[in-house]
Automatic annotation (TrEMBL):
Residues annotated as catalytic: 120
EC number(s) recorded for this UniProt protein: 3.6.1.6
Database matches in Gene3D superfamilies: 3.30.420.40, Exopolyphosphatase. Domain 2
Record-given protein name: nucleoside diphosphate phosphatase
GO molecular function, one term: ATP binding
PANTHER family cross-referenced by the UniProt entry: ADENOSINE/GUANOSINE DIPHOSPHATASE, NTPASE, ISOFORM F
Family: Belongs to the GDA1/CD39 NTPase family.
The entry's keywords: ATP-binding, Hydrolase, Nucleotide-binding
Binding positions (ATP): 151-155
UniProt superkingdom: Eukaryota
EC top class, as a word: hydrolase
Length: 370
């Protein structure tokens, strides 16, 4: 399974043991990643396909030759391609399909697609709960919620304990899912344009429809950047000159206001998130680790810690991470003012669970096998 994200492409080679028709055990995972993301090649689709060819070749080295013809290969693209003009996205997909069909793996007509944002949330929730052993459990309310923050979009998924959550939520946010002969009613939604990299651009003044589509004149300026900062920000194959504001105009207060403007009244707030246990991964994990709040193995953090650390970093920037003030302000605003988490809610931040990447890829692979 190849995850073609907005900031990079990631290969997951899963090895399973089938104990019976309904009993599959995950044995191991081989993981590799490359940058930039496939959407960066919107104007050079042949080069984009070549980047994926390298990942396919790695998969060939991992999967025994005798099993390659019966091993399915798939690529699912996420927000980066969703935000491209449709014709450019389709050309990239067609070129990758050609690479797949030239490989020794089992390839179907729908092996290379842009994935629906809701499926991204559902599959990530499956991955987390499969890895912690919560699926199929007889214990009531054994599952945990999943928060995924990518470059172009963000997803929230959980199984409500309170039926009022299901009744009061927008109809499109509720999905029944049957897993291992058990049906779960899930609250799931994907917010396109609310991923971390897209948020950076919007906090610096770009509109969602302009991201990935046009260059800018002059420099994008932000109160979230160090006052003396002059540099470039690259996203989806486009490079944007960026700079900080003068002393007195920059800092936490102004940056927090920009983050609030991004999320206020734009994100549904299910009351139940204040009691629901959640795993958070992708950029939630990365920024918590890079800012020194957790170690390599992850950890548990109160939601309030993101805002607290944002204030510290905005006051005393981290030279190696000039966007950290912006990123932590946005993450904090998204969690508290967007989704409505209580500052005292505790999130479990993990990059891996039992040695397997916390992402939607495992869930999507199970769906493919079924």
């Amino acid at each position: 399974m190849i995850d073609a994200g907005s900031t990079g492409s990631r290969l997951h080679v899963f090895k399973f043991r089938r104990n019976s028709e309904d009993d599959i055990t995950l044995v191991s995972e081989k993981f590799e990643s490359i940058k930039p993301g496939l959407s960066s090649y919107a104007d050079d689709p042949d080069e984009g396909a070549a980047s994926i060819r390298g990942l396919v070749q790695i998969a060939q080295e991992v999967v025994p030759v005798a099993m390659q013809r019966t091993t399915p290969l798939a690529l699912k693209a996420t927000a980066g391609l969703r935000m491209l003009p449709e014709a450019k996205a389709q050309t990239l997909l067609d070129k990758v399909q050609e690479v797949f069909e030239a490989s020794p793996f089992l390839v179907r007509k729908d092996s290379v697609v842009v994935m629906n944002g809701l499926d991204e949330g559902l599959f990530a929730w499956f991955t987390v709960n499969f890895l912690i052993g919560a699926l199929g459990s007889k214990e009531k309310h054994s599952t945990k919620g999943a928060l995924d923050l990518g470059g172009g979009s963000t997803q929230i998924t959980f199984s409500p304990r309170d039926k009022e959550t299901l009744r009061s939520s927008p109809e499109s946010f509720v999905r029944p899912v049957t897993i291992f002969h058990k049906t779960y009613m899930l609250y799931v939604h994907s917010y396109l344009g609310f991923g971390l990299m897209a948020a950076r651009l919007r906090m610096m003044g770009m509109e969602t429809e302009d991201i990935n589509r046009r260059s800018v004149k002059g420099s994008l300026r932000s109160a979230c950047l160090p006052a003396d900062f002059r540099g470039a920000f690259e996203h989806s194959g486009m490079e944007y000159p960026v700079s900080g504001l003068p002393e007195g105009e920059a800092g936490f207060g102004a940056c927090w206001a920009a983050a609030l403007a991004m999320v206020s009244r734009r994100i549904h707030q299910p009351d139940e998130v204040r009691q629901e246990p959640f795993y958070a991964f992708s950029y939630y994990f990365d920024r918590a680790k890079e800012s020194g709040m957790i170690g390599e193995e992850g950890g548990s953090l109160k939601v309030s810690k993101f805002k607290q650390r944002a204030e510290e970093v905005c006051r005393k920037p981290l030279p190696e991470y000039p966007f950290m003030c912006m990123d932590l302000c946005y993450i904090s605003a998204l969690l508290q003012e967007g989704f409505g988490f209580n500052p005292n809610n505790v999130l479990m931040l993990r990059k891996k669970i039992d040695g397997v990447e916390t992402s939607w890829a495992l869930g999507a692979t199970f769906r493919m096998l079924s």
